[in-house]
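note to self — DONT lose this again. spent like an hour looking for the file last time. sequence + predicted structure for the chain T wanted, 407 res
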Amino acid sequence: MSNWLIEQQIVISFLLLTLITLEAKAMKNLGAEVIYALWLLVPLLLIANNLPQDVITVDDKSIYRYIVEIGAATNTVNINFNWALLWLSGCLAILSLGAIAQWKIYRIAHFGSRKVELGIALPNTLTVVKNNQLSSPILSGIFKPTLLIPEGFHSQFSVRQQQLMINHELVHFHRGDNLYNLFALLFVAVFWFNPLTWLAYRAFRRSQELACDAAVLKQSTTEDQISYSKALVQCAERSLHSFSIYSPYGEKHTMFKRIINIQSPSKIKPALIGLSIALSSTLLASVAFANLAETAHSVDKPSMAIPVIRIEPKYPVEAARDNQEGSVILQFDITQDGSTDNIEVIESFPQQVFDKNAITALKQWTYKPRIQGGQAQIQSGLKVQLDFKLDKPYEGQTAINSSIEKI
C-alpha cells in the first residue's frame, strides 16, 4: 500500500496544484460551474494512472532452490519506520472525525427537530425539519437527504431570500453533492500526508458552493443578488457550529469569495473552456497510454532473481520431532516494488507438512525488481524450491527428482 501511495504522488500533486491555481485565478474566465466540473479529473486521473502494467512472464523451468535446516535463523535488523502504520493511523483519524461530525448533524436532524412545510415545491424524497441549533440551511444525508433549516428561518429572512437559499440547497440535492463530498473526504483520508490534498479539499468545496450560487443566480436581478448576498452575510454572522471538516458558511474566505463572485459575475470565455477541456483530455490520455499494458512479454533466459531480504522458514516442530524431512516447490510473482504475490504450492513432499511454513516465509521475501525502460516490471511464474533438511542435504528426497534445472 505504501508503495502504491508513493507512485501516485507525482501525477496527483501536479493535477491538484493545477486545479487549486485554476480555482484561485481562473474563476472569472471559466466560470464556477466549469471549475467545479474540472474536479472530476481527480478520480479519472487515478483510474488512468492505475491501468494494468506490463508483466514479464518467465518461460524457463528454472527453480531457485534453498535449503532450510532446523534451527536456522534470519539475522535481519529492521530499522525502517513503520510507515504503513503511520498512514493507517492518520487515515482512521480523519475518517473518525468525519463520522463524528456527521453524527452531530444526524442527531440534530432526527432528535429535537420537527418537520415543517415550506410552501415550495420540493422533491418527494426530501424531508424538511427545523432546529434551534442551526443558523443556516444545511442539506444532510446521501441516500435519504434531509434539509435542516433554522428555527427562525421565516422571521430572519425575507421571502425572496428564503427562496434563493432553499434553491441553493436544492442544487446540492439534484447534483448529488453530498455523495461527492464523501468521496472527497475519502480522498483526503487516503492522501492526508500530502499538503496539497488539504488545500485541494478546501478549493473543491469552495468551487462547489460557488457553482451552486451561479446556478441559483443564473437569471436573477440585481435586487436578488443584493438580497442573496445579505443573507449569506447574516448566515456567516450567526454560524456558531461547525458540522463538518469544512463549513461553507463559517469559513470566512469562502464567504468573501462567494459575495465577490455575486457582485462581479464571471465573464466566461468559451475559447478558454475549450482549451481546458483539450488539455484535460490530453493529460488523461498521456497518463493512460503511459500505464496501459500492451501485451505481456516473455523472457527466455532471465537473469537470476535473487532476494534482497530472505526470511528463513520455521522448521515445523512436529516434523522435527518425527525426524521428518521434505521439500516444497512454490510458484509466485514479483511485484513492481519487489514483494512476492500470488503464491501457490505446485508440489510438496510430504504433502501439507511444510506447505504453510514455506508460504509464510515466502510472503516476507523481497526481491530486487526487474527494470525495463526505466520502469519496474511485474515478473510472473517464478518458482522456488525449499528443502527442509535435518542433516546434510542429499539427492533423492525432494519434491521432484526431475530434469528441471535447480539453482
